[in-house]
Amino acid sequence: MRFSTAFFTTLTLTLVGFVATTHAADTPTPVPCVVKPATIVEQQAINDQFNDQFYISRDIVGAYSHLTSDYINHKPDITDGQLASFNFVYPLLDKSSNLSVTVQILHTSFKPPFAWVHWRADGFMPRPTAILDIYRYNGTCIVEHWDVVEEVPENPVSTHPLF
């Protein structure tokens, strides 16, 4: 069964509206990353730290300190900019969130200037969801993001759908 973009937009806005009521006005905001030159080894360490903060410890404020203020986001539901993305993601994924979302990293790769993470999320949608995040680095900072999101179909034909 295929769902339209409008369905996912409505679902996302509903979830965000639901959790926004618990998103306190005093929620800390991340300090934008300022681009500085970095070696490949330094970029790898920054990427590892970002992955740990975002996907494992779910420290969204810390993770978003790796994004520039003018961060380009190709997700159609969010405008560009670090703060716009943070305001969307924080209530959904931060460790303080009231949502019961579990995250499992399945695959990662880093080949400068790009990094990607294939991960599984349970709790966003009725069935497990596969997400592929792609990031572009400029020196010490993440400057651009793409993602692909797909929920496991209700009756998959494949014996190993998405994971």
UniProtKB/TrEMBL annotation:
InterPro entries registered for this protein in UniProt: NTF2-like_dom_sf
Signal peptide coordinates: 1-24
Keywords per UniProt: Signal
Identification of the protein by name: Snoal-like polyketide cyclase family protein
Organism of this sequence: Favolaschia claudopus
